[in-house]
Amino acid sequence: MASSKISTCLIFLQLIFLLFVFNSANAQLKVGFYKDTCPQAEAIVKKVMDQVMKVAPSLSGPLLRMHFHDCFVRGCDGSVLLNSSTGQAEKDSPPNLSLRGYQVIDRVKTALEKECPGVVSCADALAIVARDVTVATMGPFWEVETGRRDGRVSTFSEPLTNLPPFFANISQLISMFRSKGLTVKDLVVLSGGHTIGTSHCSSFTSRLYNSTGKDGTDPTLDSEYIEKLKSKCKVGDQTTLVEMDPGSVRTFDNSYYTLVAKRRGLFQSDAALLDNSETKAYVKLQSAATYRSTFFKDFGVSMINMGRVGVLTGNAGEIRKVCSKIN
C-alpha cells in the first residue's frame, strides 16, 4: 500500500516536472522580451518599415507571407532567410521562389545591429515586420511575442513537405495546420492574409485550362471570373502577376471572404474553405460582416498562435549578425 502511494507520488512529481520544463521553454517567448536589452527594437523596425512601405507598398503581401513560410518549416526560426552557396536552402525550394523582400529584412537587421549588436534575432525581426506591414495596409495591430532565436539549418526539401500547396484540398490543409499545433479556425483566419498581395498565373492556371469542368475549367470557380482570369493568364504563363483580392490588393480587409463565398477565391486552397462546415461558416460570417468585423481581432490571435510554432528559445540556436548566414 505504501509502495503504491510512493509510486503515485513519483508519477505526480514527474508530471509536474515535465509541465514545468514545457512551460518554462514557452515562457521565454513573451511581449516585451527586449525591454531591457534593446528597448527601441520595435520602434527601429517600424521606422525602417515606414520608409519601405512609402516606396514599395507591393512588398506588404510577400513580407507577410515570408513569416508564414518561415514558421511552417522548422518553426519560426528565420531559416527561410539563410543563403546556400549550392542552392540548397529553403529559399531555393520551389514553394519559396516567389518570395520577395529579403533585402528589407537585411535592412531592418542592419538597423537593429547598429543600435543593439547581437541582441535581436532575425526570426523576431521577421515576426515584427509581418505585423507592421499588416498595419501599414490598414490591417490590425497585435502585440508580437518575442524571444525567438535563429536556427542554423535550412534545407531545400522541407518546404516541399511542410508548406500547404495552393492546390491542397481541405483535408490536407487541416492536417498540415494541425501538425503545427494550429486549429481549423487558425487555418481559415490566416487564409485571410490573401487579402493583400499578388500571385503568378502558374499557381492557378490549372483551374482555367486543366481541370474537370467544361473546356478544362474548374467547376468550383465562378465562370465569369474564369473568363477574366483567362484574359490575363494564357497557357504556360510563368511571369504575369494577378491580384489575389482584386480591387483591394493593398488594403487589408475582409473582402477576401466575400470573394471566396462567391466562388472567386484564386487558389484551389481558397475554394477548399467551402468544403468544411467550420471553415465555410467562418467564410459566410465574414463575407456578410461589415468592414473589420471580428476578422481583425481573430487575425491577430492566429498570427500570435502561428508565431509560437517550433520556436527556439533560451540557449538553443543563435542570434545571427547577418540574417542570410549563420555566425
UniProtKB/TrEMBL annotation:
Disulfide bonds join C38-C116, C71-C76, C122-C323, C201-C233. It is found in: Secreted. GO terms for cellular component: extracellular region. One of its GO terms (biological process) is hydrogen peroxide catabolic process. GO terms for molecular function: heme binding; lactoperoxidase activity; metal ion binding. It is an enzyme of class 1 (oxidoreductase). Residues 1-27 form the signal peptide. Removal of H(2)O(2), oxidation of toxic reductants, biosynthesis and degradation of lignin, suberization, auxin catabolism, response to environmental stresses such as wounding, pathogen attack and oxidative stress. These functions might be dependent on each isozyme/isoform in each plant tissue. This is Peroxidase. It comes from Salix purpurea.
